[in-house]
Request: fold
Amino acid sequence: MKVAIAGAGVAGSYCARLLLAEGYEIDLYDLPHPNPCGIAPCAWMTTAGIAPLLAAAGLDYQAYILERFSSVRFEDHEVQAALMTIDKPRLIRDLQSGITVIAGSPDPSRYDRLIDATGTARAFLPPVPQDCLGQCVQVRVQVSPALQSVPMVRYVNGGYAWSFPIGCNLRHIGCISHLTDPASLLQGCHLLEDAIGLPICRCRSLLRVTAPSGALPFVSPDRKIWGVGEAIGCVYPIVGDGIVPAFESVRLLLSHMDDPGAYTAEVMAAFPQMEAERDILLALKAGRLPGPGQLLRAGDLDRLGMRIGTVEIARIITRALACTSQVGDQRP
Ligand SMILES: Cc1cc2nc3c(=O)[nH]c(=O)nc-3n(C[C@H](O)[C@H](O)[C@H](O)COP(=O)(O)OP(=O)(O)OC[C@H]3O[C@@H](n4cnc5c(N)ncnc54)[C@H](O)[C@@H]3O)c2cc1C
Reply:
């Protein structure tokens, strides 16, 4: 079978590597990136779930760790966690090792199968009727060596801002908001005050916040185009982690290469918490506060190594909601 993979981000590059190892004839395509880091979107924080997924591709996740963390600071409140920042550009380069990335978009008529790994672009699958994309801004900056190496999160109107250490006194600082332009919120949340000099790079990007159930179909009606990763909503709508889910979706695809129904059912079953986070976002965007049941369903943060009780979750969410002054006013 001759397979084209559109998109050489984490999902597409991982997919290319695994399909090649299984003997498929593949071509991997991507569009030129304007960002200096050469990837889009840049994202650095990940969880222990990455280890077995990279091992399946013959890679050792430890080679990509920039920093490890045992806690995250939400405003002034520190919560236990098990997280790490990784060198995502290097990981993508290694996944693509031995594969030539063709510049441009594939012509579907030249292939038996096309994998849509184009992230928020979802360039080949049918469009999502009620697609929802959150706006993000991000910068990479140098900070003082004296700054404590702990990930920080601040609540902003309709979202949050983050500052993640990525080694060598560098930080990845960004903001997502579902209500307001995140650029102005990032300026106002004081995280950039830690920066020394001008940002090394900056970019804007989008995050698909529909969860998988809002990004159907995963396979085109003629069974030619199959989606993976963020193209089919495999990213946590509130927390925003999509690297591990992108890899997981590729593994599911490989297990069901000829069964669209089984693939769809497995993806839908694999990420129940994405649906819980999506329900909270929908409630907020409709101007309602999420119910206790919704908060509880979304509050299981085991994948992040966070073992926090419901009282603590309620406290974090209450603080976050207190910063969201215009719920329902400005829908993106
Ligand atoms: C600001 C921000 C911060 C984030 N931080 C984190 C984080 O810390 N941890 C985490 O786990 N997740 C994070 N995420 C989410 C994560 O980055 C994505 O979910 C993940 O990268 C999705 O991978 P993907 O391969 O499906 O899509 P992408 O990584 O978006 O890759 C899609 C690729 O397709 C290419 N493409 C687009 N259109 C075409 C076309 N027509 N033809 C060919 N190629 C095309 C693009 O150029 C791109 O290279 C973040 C997202 C954002 C926006």
About this structure: The domain at 2-274 is CATH 3.50.50.60 (FAD/NAD(P)-binding domain). The chain has one domain: 2-274. Confidence is low (pLDDT under 50) at residues 326-332.
